[in-house]
Prior knowledge:
Layout: E1 5-10, E2 15-21, E3 24-31, H1 35-42, H2 52-74, E4 78-82, H3 84-97, E5 109-110, H4 112-124, H5 130-137, H6 139-143, E6 150-154
Parallel strand pairs: 1-4, 4-6
Antiparallel strand pairs: 1-2, 2-3, 5-6
Helix pairs in contact: 1-5, 3-4, 3-5
Amino acid sequence: MDTRSIVIDIGSGSTEVVIADGLSQHFVRSFKLGAIRLTSRFFSLTSLHPSATSACRKFLHSTLSPSRKEIIALAPEVAVISSGTAEALANMVRILRDEPEPKSMNGFAFTAKELGVAVDLLAQSPTVEMNIYAARERQYLLEEALGVPIMLLDGSEN
């Protein structure tokens, strides 16, 4: 892929971020921001504290802040995400579009604006499954790409 892209792989314990074009890597980082790690730290399995989302957002912001300027300066045009989190978010966008369920979510593309709508709906929901709710917080990784089109590469969990 010759287009400058940000590739994000959200695992259970960490999230890997790579910005590259062609064979050239410009940014490679691993952040301790995995789905299970953040769920365990901020979200109870039995109840949701009113400040949990805001505390998680602050933590994400402080963790990503040192890399944000570098990511923005590299100006990726496309974001590609890989994980069960990505698949859940892509499915939400698909449902909001009222599209039929495909055999595979691989290659499903959506915009940052569509992601924002899905995230806003999750934020308004009084109850959600904790793995999907924790996935909502990973929007900050995608926001680092500043509104570029998002394409799901792989729906598998790492």
